Amino acid sequence: DWTMAAYKDEAIRKIREQVGDKQVICGLSGGVDSSVAAVLIHEAIGDQLTCVFVDHGLLRQNEVDEVVGMFRDHYNIPLIHADETELFLGELDGVSDPETKRKIIGRLFIDVFQKHANNIDGAEFLAQGTLYPDVIESVSFSGGPSVTIKSHHNVGGLPEKMGLKLVEPLRELFKDEVRALGHELGLPASFIGRHPFPGPGLAIRCPGEITREKLDILRKADAVYIDQIRKHGLYDDIWQAFVAILPVRTVGVMGDGRTYDFACALRAVTSVDGMTADYYPFSHEFLGETATRIINEVKGINRVTYDITSKPPGTIEWE
Ligand code: XMP
Predict the structure, then answer these.
(1) Which protein residue's CA is at the shortest distance from atom 3 of ligand 1?
(2) What keywords does the record list, in alphabetical order (predicted)?
(3) Is 153 touching ligand 1 by the criterion CB < 6 Å?
(4) CA 246 – CA 226 distance, rounded (Å)
(5) Mind listing the pLDDT tens digit for each residue in 86-136?
(6) The whole model's pTM is what?
(7) CA distance 264 to 1
(8) Is the ipTM above a cut-off of 0.95?
(9) Is the domain of 43 the same as that of 173?
């Protein structure tokens, strides 16, 4: 009979068999998937693993410190923090098409990995925390003709020129199973319970052109929103919650002055595996209080809306 403990042992055996005595680099995003993959692979092959945390400048508030602290200091896993903010934001400058954004980010991720892989003697493998839903969503849409809904940055294999083979130990798992595996590996519950965060990061929560100003505003609004959700004890009831900053300024009034600032949308959904989702039924009181806090605490936002679209027909992220 099947247990997660047995799955873990089998996964470790397969990783050792695939990798032999070669070096592996693992792309760390700070999300649950890549973290579980890294800890699993570290358990299998120890110091043959080096993690590369690509900081694309599209991370949430405090995320860099949390991830670096956890892996380098807590787990003692060799970790390279690649600060590539200038590279990513430079290439994304002026780009507003969602698929183009995803493709640029995906390509740069691979370039940055390649650069670091070249510096690790004997690196032959690249590990990724690709899950089963990632695999099927980027291939086809349930039952219908083969249509790409979104190009997930971490799927699709690697260019031949990269010369690295893939290690994807979570490829058969759904999100809840990854969390169970993380638990089995001894990851802290607070980390395992974190909401999913997409590889392209805040880029796909900033529809239209990405600017540093918008990213800054988005980070602050998102932090206030998540703080509200935690304070009200709702975090664990929600699959994913975040703010999207809208590419539109609206007129408002504050004190006795006119404002002309960005509008934002709050998103919160329940889901089992991310494939379908329902919007979360917050109380009006919660929504009102959160809107007031965001407008009072975040300079640059003067209007807050709540996204009540389910998936389908919407997707969870805005791009
Ligand atoms: P959508 O927006 O397609 O998202 O309904 C479903 C789930 O996938 C996450 N997501 C991604 N995760 N790379 C990732 O690792 C990506 O490119 C990507 N795009 C979306 C999204 O946050 C949600 O949990």
Answers:
(1) 315
(2) ATP-binding, Glutamine amidotransferase, GMP biosynthesis, Ligase, Nucleotide-binding, Purine biosynthesis
(3) yes
(4) 18
(5) 999 999 999 999 999 999 999 998 888 778 878 888 889 989 888 887 777
(6) 0.86
(7) 49
(8) yes
(9) yes
